[in-house]
Amino acid sequence: MSFLGIDIGSRYIKAVLLEKGTVKKWIKVETSYEPLNRSLEILGKYNPEKTVATGYGRHLLSFNGNIPTITEIKAFAIGAKVLIPSCRTIIDIGGQDTKIISLDEKGNVKKFEMNDKCAAGTGRFLEIMASALGYSIDEFGKIESNIESSLQISSMCTVFAESEVISLIAKGISREEITIAIHKAIAKRVLSMLKKVSLEEDIVFAGGCAGNILLKKLIEIEIKKKIITPEKYHFTGALGAAIFAEKI
Q1: Containing structural domain, residue 114
Q2: Both 42 and 26 in a single domain?
Q3: Which of 104, 106, 142, 219 supports an S-S bond with 187, CB 3.0-4.6 Å?
Q4: 58-97: per-residue pLDDT in tens?
Q5: CATH of the domain at 164
Q6: pLDDT level of residue 198 (50, 70, 90 thresholds)
Q7: Which DSSP string corresponds to 39-70?
Q8: Measured between alpha carbons, how far is 58 from 47 in angstroms, rounded to an integer?
């Protein structure tokens, strides 16, 4: 039998196809303006016996395809524990929200903290800031973290932060210095969220922003601990959903 876990995110749809407990396919496509159709295309192409959906748009498949769903918290807990068995804390910065998840030694969720009220500190926030500074999102996360700067971004609201960035550029402050300040602000926000749950190692960085090298380094500096980024960090939630599908 084949089992599909599908994570419908705001920017990308990720899917993992399992057969006999082995990953047969890692699938990633842009969500675009038709997340339901893109998701149904994946289901039609691979025709799994069982599917479980998670992510920002999981209810689209629940309403339109009678597909069972699980929360991102549960999916990421399962997926992260498989990718990094020693995982006890998950940092997930996605396109629309930030989540901190604390696990016990068996991988059960002990506690979690979530920011989903606005785009502050999320992948979308980073995309807007990168655009304001004339960077691609990939370039934005590769700026050297050793640039000395005491600059601080006073607002994490996307609208106000973008205006502040434009103002700083007009004052002649370098793009690199502003970039460091933006990432430091997000790292401090993550630290604040981590303090509300237990910060135990190993700490796993998952979600779309886990590929941002600069952000990872600055979070490590803030929390004074090392962070592990799995090779398949994009697929943490989809993998968790696929494993859950195999068990139900």
Answers
A1: 86-229
A2: yes
A3: 219
A4: 999 988 778 999 999 999 999 999 999 999 999 999 888 8
A5: 3.30.420.40
A6: confident
A7: HHHHHHHH--SEEEEESTTHHHHHHHH---B-
A8: 18
